[in-house]
Design a protein that fits this description.
GO terms for molecular function: acyl-[acyl-carrier-protein]-UDP-N-acetylglucosamine O-acyltransferase activity. Helices cover about 20% and strands about 20% of the residues. With about 140 residues, the protein is of the alpha/beta class. Strands 1-4-7-10-13 form a 5-stranded parallel β-sheet, with no helix packed on it.
Length: about 140
């Protein structure tokens, strides 16, 4: 009987450790990641200005645009047709979903912190016109 308990206890602790590790990694995907050299991926159809600053492990999808004063942190992801213009800085591990537009050539700059997700077709920091307040619209 004692020999069965000796075998069973290490197995149970292994199962608990593995299940906690899986649960923790679903809450925070950066936990328990293996340390490896981050390589960037830039799709051939993406347009990136030569003065743009891109961190390590950045993924740029098809038909994306990165302007001359843009700065992308490490591990950022740009889904297809997302754009960054003007004096804009994205922190580490930010995600721009499909069609998102961030920044404009307005005075000042836009700074977005780490671990943010900009949604599908969202527009951040771009001067928009509001047509409902236009005089003599009718």
């Amino acid at each position: 009987m004692n020999s069965l308990l000796k075998i069973r206890r290490p197995f149970c602790s292994f199962v608990v450790t593995v299940s906690l590790r899986r649960f923790s990694s679903t809450l925070n995907p950066h936990v328990f990641e293996e340390k490896r050299e981050a390589s960037s991926f830039i799709h051939p159809t993406a347009v990136i200005h030569q003065n743009a600053v891109i961190g390590q492990g950045v993924s740029v999808g098809s038909f994306c645009t990165i302007g001359s004063s843009a700065k992308l942190g490490n591990g950022c992801q740009m889904y297809p047709a997302s754009h960054i213009f003007g004096n804009t800085e994205l922190g580490d591990h930010c995600v721009l979903m499909t069609g998102a537009v961030v920044g404009d050539d307005l005075p000042g700059g836009i700074v977005i912190g780490c671990n943010n997700i900009i949604g599908h077709h969202a527009v951040v920091g771009v001067k928009c016109q509001d047509m409902k307040y236009k005089v003599n619209f009718y």
